[in-house]
Known about the structure:
The structure holds 2 protein chains of 2 kinds.
Chain A: H1 2-46, E1 47-48, E2 51-52, H2 55-62, H3 64-96, H4 103-110, H5 112-115, H6 119-129, H7 134-142, H8 154-163, H9 167-178, H10 182-190, H11 195-206, H12 208-223, H13 227-232, H14 240-249, H15 254-281, H16 302-329, H17 334-339, H18 350-357, H19 363-392, H20 396-405, H21 407-410, H22 413-424, H23 442-464, H24 468-476, H25 481-509, H26 515-518, H27 526-533, H28 540-543, H29 545-572
Antiparallel strand pairs in A: 1-2
Helix pairs in contact in A: 1-22, 3-8, 3-9, 3-12, 4-16, 6-16, 9-12, 9-25, 10-11, 12-15, 12-23, 14-15, 19-23, 19-25, 23-25, 24-25, 25-29, 27-29
Chain B: H1 2-20, H2 45-50, E1 57-62, H3 69-79, E2 83-88, H4 91-100, E3 109-114, H5 115-123, E4 127-128, E5 148-160, H6 174-179, E6 188-189, H7 196-206, E7 210-215, H8 220-231, E8 234-235, H9 242-248, E9 253-257, H10 258-268, E10 273-275, E11 283-291, H11 296-309, H12 312-322, E12 325-326, H13 337-345, H14 353-371
Parallel strand pairs in B: 1-2, 1-3, 6-8
Antiparallel strand pairs in B: 3-11, 4-11, 5-9, 5-10, 5-11, 5-12
Helix pairs in contact in B: 4-5, 7-14
Amino acid sequence: MEKKLSLRTNYRLQKTLRFVLIALVIGWLIFSFLLYPNVDLIRTTLFQDGKLQVNPIIQVFTSSRVQKSLWNSFILAISLTLTVNILGIFQVLILDYFNIKGNKWLSVAYHAPLICNGMVLVLAYNFVYGGNGFLTTVFTRLFPDMNPLWFQGFWAVLIEMTFSGTSNHIMIVRDALHAIDYQTIEAAQSMGIKPWRVLIKVVLPTLRPSLFAASILTFITGVSAFATPQVLGGPEFETINPLVRSFANTLTTRHYAAILAIFLGIVTIIVMTFSNYIERRKNYRSVSKTKIPLRKQNIQSAKVRIPVTILAHLIAILQVLPLFFVVLFSFMSAKDLYAGKISFARFTLDNYKTVFNSTLGARPVLTSLIYSAVSSIAIVALMLFIGRIITKYKNRLTRTLEAVLQIPWFLPSTLIALAMVMTFSAPKAFLGNRVLTGTLYLLPIGYMVIKTPYTLRMIKAAYATLDESIEEAAKNLGASSMKTYVKVLLPILWPDVLSVFLLNFIGLLGEYSLSVFLFHPRYQPLGVALNAAASPDATPEAAMLSFVYAVLIMAISTLTILFIYNRKGKIKK
Amino acid sequence: MKKFISVAMALVMSLGMVACSGDNEGSDTTKGDATGSVKEESVDFEKIYAEKPNGELLVVVTNNAGEGRDVWLKNLASEAGFNLEIVSLGGGAATARVIAEANNPTTNVIWGPSEDQFATMVEANALAPFVPEWAEDVKGLSKENGYSWPYEIQPKLLVANPDQFTEETAPKDYKDLWEKPEFHGKYAVPTAFDGNTNRAIIGGILAQYLDPDGELGVSDEGWEAIKAYFNNGYKTPKGENDFGNMASGTVPITFTFASGLLGKMKSFNVEPIVIYTEVGEPTNTNQIGVVKAKDQKIFEESLRFANWLGSADVIGAYAAANGNIVANAKAKDQMDPFMKDVADKFKAQDADWTYINSMMDQWVAKIQLEIY
Lengths: 573, 372
């Protein structure tokens, strides 16, 4: 009896020691790379001689342009959360829940947002649907009365961002659908419940955690919309982030950027707190120990099946079309592009030649590949660990930890990058007096910082679908917690882990705002090369190179997706 | 609710950090400690320039690398014995980077930003003193600071579509654009505010309304003028090209930096009317500077390269190929004939550009928040 007790106290001591050690390491990481640089930058920009400057705050919030842009941003965010969920759920169901003809092609098409996104895609939309766009020219010939600027303003922004915003659904929500236990559906069907109700009452509730995660991400994408409103918003629909970024770029206006960033951050936190509250109320978990994989449903009624099939294919075409044009543009001259003329006879490889003959050559491809891969792997690993702590021990400390890790979500990348360059350009005691500016390490650390909130949110959603009894069973069989984790839990999580890795990796391939400050001059990433080509001092001809870089990014992304799916396929077997 | 409290706590905590970390980081702003190993005050420029290049790898940051100009420079430099890594960045991004890295630079020579941008680099103590052999040949073109030197003159030119306007019917001055209704909606205005050209256009307008008693040094009339300028102009969205719009006639008046004129004319197959305004063109110079270095050999090589790059032969050949207006008096004859004509005809707007540039960020903020 006594022996047992001492063992137990010993065990407790061990646990406490481990806890302190882990807390120290995580605390150090967060303090050094996340809190210190950003808080320090915000302090120096908002405070002068230790006093908060109130005037700029009043200036910012009394500006009618700021008020209107803020309003637009939130309207966009709310609408987008709705539309992306509708489109995303539709696509996921089409791919994996219903039997629809042309599944392979649909699957390829629905992955389009992963392959090409950001400014290049928006420009492609504009060159296709915009005032001088190729399709607009065709349409106006058919309907001379139509307004050539039909694709402009709020709706254009919402449509573009909806079609390019479904990547989380295609990866994460789809993984959740795969994890569904088919027996629950069968049971519902055998009770005579109509297919429509099965979908709503049985299938969708099990997708809840992943839908929540995707919704929050979509909301944040909407609030921080940058490229799309600038191109497609027109004079009437301006959002706040372009203004924040332009303020962040010049020294003397940086405090405006900081004020707006903090404001956006507070609003985002309120929204997330609210949604976390709803999320915690109810979570459905499959309790079955022998899951049967999902079987696809036939839509019996032709009246429903045919329109759904047509719609599914129409959406696929709309999603792929702009990408197709990006590839075409990469073979065109600036003059033809702006004139809206596509003539295959005039296609040239000049843009490609210029890219590969430049002093950079293909080096940016390799640089971005390595940086993106390393940082994506590292951040997923770290967040698997932290996410485990947060979901397993729910207390004030872990909730604070989670809140702090959200910071990079609302700070503009420009500010994060500046904060890092300035902080780490002088020796800091907490880094063992090392200087990080100008080293190869700064960029991957920056990448990890900006991907922290996203990764954590996704990993948390993955943990939420885990069945606790599996873990208990493994432990009852005598497995240590480490062994249980590696041998039992991780394999279940693996598809989600791969998805998050993939989304991070692809997102970082063309990253610009942060990279431009942190890259080592000898190793320029793709995003920097792409944007240098399209900078304001560049001529239109030079700007065409950005399409070449976009095609390169598309190629790498496609290969990576194929590779990852190959891995996922092997796991299933 | 608990969640909310913890989030609020986190916020308070970070705010607390803001307040507590008070002034102990003042040392961050002491300039250039980390780069003290090179003695910059007693540099013997002549001796360094006389020596042959030592082949040390130099990182050259420039906004002049597009359209194969990087290859051109690298090859020519390599023939002269220099070993370059060329980093292509926009002028603003290049400047921001050099400043942010003032304590621990990763670049060696910076080529292309404007004198205004170089002034901020000098102020941030990011550059090393540098006097090239050709200093005399570019004398008087910009305010001398002892760090950066002009290689190119960059007037901002108002241009108009030749089918819609003649020299008589085209606007004579920026003021015409908003004062005469026939030009309303027919001219492009700046849509971004971080580029040199856009800022110079704004500066050129507000310069005519300076008033020490006015808001931010500009009279009420001036603020009304800039408001009318923006309200009656066309805000070219991204995805359209202002020069392309001018060429096609949809928005027949726009402006460009001089060195972009030839290339854009070729891209859009147009020879526009170049308008030489009555008050003169807002003009700046683009310059070359040397970033501080820790290594003596690299530092000397940087000086040698910057000196070589701005010399009459090299910059003359560069201007001949790319349509620049050179600063170096000895290279004038090598300019492209069309641009030489522009160089002879334009008149630089006379204004207190140092003061204007010092106010520009605040003006731009006001325009962004209240006018645009």
